[in-house]
Amino acid sequence: MTYEQREIPFAAAMLDLADALGQVDPGQRLERLTAHCQALTPVSAATALVIEGGDRQVWAATPPDVSDGLTGCDSWESGSPLRDCHHLGRPIPEVPLAHPYARACWPRYAPAARDSGFLAVAAWPLSHDGTAYGALCLLSQRPGQLGSTTERIASALARATAIGLAHHQALAEQRRLAGQLQRALDSRTVIEQAKGILAERHDIALQDAFEMLRRTSRNSQTPLRELAQTIIAAPRERSAAPPQTPPSPPLARDKAE
């Protein structure tokens, strides 16, 4: 295999998985990870898992028709290389699925994998800067598919994926905080506008206008921002026209004339 055939696709895969700016959710990132693993290594299948929010599981597998017994909640609850790798935070080197260790640690996963024609399994954590996000698992149907070259490629792809997940989460948190700040600033602007309208309408100080606004909000159980928007949207009351000065009565001499 030439340099271009191996290194250029590998570099492209690393950049793809580490990308944090693209609109890629965790499930799509895992799909790319498993697809890259199968394209760059001789393994028969790849599965991956990310834990979101402490308990929500996001799965992906390549090829997509991998047995349900090797992915999903069933394999997680009964034990699997993905679960053990995620909890341990370190790689699980190649384990033959017929080995007593596999049968003891993964009593449902190992038979299901063997029934699907797989001979061995290995796993790598998706972790970055001390935070564990999930795990990657490769399965082989022939001896030698999980050799040292495959291990190095899988480890690098797993690290790139974890970096992408970490940066994506950090960016999402920054966007969330920025959105909160913008909403707070928008609310402040709306409330200040409503205060000005009330102060002008009732000829009172701005502080008194704010107290009126807050009191009305509390008594009507209406959010302050919503009440302020209502005041701004309502047509302003027109001031009464000043009284007209009555015409002066005619003078006596005018009558005489």
* CATH architecture classification name of the largest domain: 2-Layer Sandwich
Radius of gyration: 35 Å
**What integer is the average pLDDT?**
84
CATH class of the largest domain: Alpha Beta
Coarse structural class: alpha+beta
Q: What's the β-strand tally?
A: 5
Shape: elongated
- When the domains are counted, the total is 2
- CATH evolutionary superfamily of the largest domain: GAF domain
Largest β-sheet summary: 5 strands, antiparallel
How many H/I helical runs? 10
Strand ordering within the main sheet:
2-1-5-4-3
Helix content: 55-70%
Give the ordered list of helices and strands. Answer: HHEEHHEHHEEHHHH
Strand percentage: 15-25%
How far is it from the N-terminal to the C-terminal residue, by CA?
125 Å
Low-confidence stretches: 238-246, 252-257
CATH topology of the largest domain: Beta-Lactamase
GO molecular function: kinase activity; RNA binding
Keywords: Kinase, Transcription, Transcription regulation, Transferase
Domain ANTAR: 171-232
Organism: Streptomyces sp. NBC_00003
